[in-house]
Write a structure and sequence with these properties.
heterodimer, A: mainly alpha, two-stranded parallel ribbon, 10 helices, 2 strands, about 55% helix, about 5% strand, globular, B: alpha+beta, four-stranded mixed sheet, 9 helices, 4 strands, EC 2.5.1.18 (chain B), glutathione transferase (chain B), Glutathione_S-Trfase_N (chain B), GST_Theta (chain B)
């Protein structure tokens, strides 16, 4: 049993791990987890196991997984640069990302798909607030991180760009084309996708990009009733 | 000009950076930025960090923000003992995992506990409903349970048998609700025992010094109206 990755391409961090592993030719067994079938139990957010006989740690958290994979599989330097300052910039982005991007950019999946799936509704006020918060974050992303650089932490693509792209794709898939009217960010997206490869991006993004269509056609997996209380709690926590 | 650290020991991540630098004998100039006086909103500080947040590091021409980035930078540049962020790939992944988890969980809940219980009503004169406070404290409780069950378990420290960045970041977070008067360690003998070990590993004197400010925060005099007005928008966003 080699590397197993428990992922759901509906989820932003899962896509980042998937793309990273595929792009770097890291052999793994994909274990698909269906986020829509229930709340994100901490266990399901990107598992990996070592070979039998080794210690079997299970790693959660996309950032930890990406860093681990980059070191273990000795991926090209640019992903997680060894230079002291360049690496510090990646961590600086990831820290800000955890506070300002994570969570915020995932709200639209809840408001437009998950809540309706269980017959709940997110108040319009919260939807508006989320949009305003996203817009503010995008402004900071452009001004503080991207600036006039090619990528978020410098002239080379890093883990930061991958994490950011996958988060930004989420609202895009749910109908908010946040790249429109933001030419700098749109150009950055173009560069990141060109680097990763159109085919790989297509493969990783197509499930989430078809989610609204699936919702309309009612072909989405339905969460079991046991999942409702946690889902409602999650919805209530949307600021 | 050597290394400068822009800190306010009121802030959890600042305490972690302060303790780490002091414990490892890293020479630095402390530049205090008093959050309750709104100094982080000044033009002067904006030159250092346009995001107007602490901690911030200035090393010659290189300015860095975000506490985890700062801790890792210091660790690599000053070649501190390995145990803080182990060479061993799996152990180091565990530290990364903790540091990633705590952002939206322990950190957020500790911050909200302090602000809802003490700072909003006492410092800002903004009442917090009992329901809101109860909900915040319940969330904190849940996170503490996760900390014990998922991370600490039966180990001496969060990652293993030695202190690491994970423990330092966690303990400085937990001192926030302690400063607010929450009995975080009561009824949690495992966590209380871990706290003792972390304090001992850091050194009692340094630990006390780093926590002087937060432990007195309940006694903060109310903010004057101008300060309050300046601070409110940022604060409300921060504790969302």
């Amino acid at each position: 049993m080699g590397l197993e990755l428990y992922l759901d391409l509906m989820s932003q961090p899962s896509r980042a791990v998937y793309i990273f592993a595929k792009k770097n030719g890291i052999p793994f067994e994909l274990r698909t987890v269906e986020v829509l079938k229930g709340p994100l139990h901490p266990q399901t957010k990107g598992y990996w196991k070592r070979r039998q006989g080794d210690i079997c740690p299970v790693l959660h958290r996309d950032v930890a997984i990406l860093i681990y994979l980059s070191i273990k599989y000795q991926t090209a330097d640019y992903w997680y640069p060894p230079d002291l300052q360049a690496r510090a910039r990646v961590h600086e982005y990831l820290g800000w990302h955890a506070d300002c991007i994570r969570g915020t950019f995932g709200v639209s999946l809840w408001t437009q798909v998950m809540a309706p799936l269980i017959g709940a509704q997110v108040p319009e006020e919260k939807v508006k607030r989320n949009r305003a918060i996203m817009d503010q974050a995008l402004q900071q992303l452009e001004d503080k991180f991207l600036g006039d650089r090619a990528f978020l932490t410098g002239q080379q693509l890093t883990l930061a760009d991958l994490m950011a792209l996958e988060e930004l794709m989420q609202p895009v898939a749910l109908g908010y084309d946040l790249f429109e009217g933001r030419p700098r960010l749109a150009a950055w997206r173009g560069r990141v996708e060109a680097f990763l490869g159109a085919e790989l991006c297509q493969e990783a993004h197509s499930p989430i990009l078809s989610i609204l269509e699936q919702a309309v056609k009612k072909t989405l997996p339905v969460p079991p009733p046991e999942a409702y209380p946690n889902m409602l709690l999650r919805i209530a926590k949307i600021p | 000009m050597g290394l400068e650290l822009y800190l306010d020991l009121l802030s959890q991540p600042c305490r972690a950076v302060y303790i780490f630098a002091r414990k490892n004998g890293i020479p630095f100039e402390l530049r205090t930025v008093e959050l309750l006086k709104g100094q982080h909103l000044s033009d002067a500080f904006a030159q250092v960090n346009p995001m107007k947040k602490v901690p911030a590091l200035k090393d010659g021409d290189f300015t860095l923000t975000e506490s985890v980035a700062i801790l890792l930078y210091l660790m690599r540049k000053y070649k501190v003992p390995d145990y803080w962020y182990p060479q061993d790939l799996q152990a180091c992944a565990r530290v990364d995992e903790y540091l990633a988890w705590q952002h939206t969980t322990l950190r957020r809940n500790c911050l909200r506990a302090l602000w809802h219980k003490v700072m909003l009503p006492v410092f800002l004169g903004e009442p917090v409903s009992p329901q809101m406070l109860a909900a915040t404290l319940a969330e904190l409780d849940e996170t503490l349970q996760l900390l014990e069950d998922k991370f600490l378990q039966n180990k001496a420290f969060l990652i293993g048998s030695h202190i690491s960045l994970a423990d330092l970041v966690a303990i400085t977070e937990l001192m926030h609700p302690v400063g607010a008067g929450c009995q975080v360690f009561e009824g949690r003998p495992k966590l209380a025992a871990w706290r003792q070990r972390v304090e001992a590993a850091v050194g009692e004197d340094l630990f006390q010094e780093a926590h002087k400010v937060i432990l007195k925060v309940k006694d903060s005099p109310p903010a004057d109206p101008t300060i309050k007005q300046k601070l409110m928008p940022g604060l409300l966003a921060m504790i969302r």
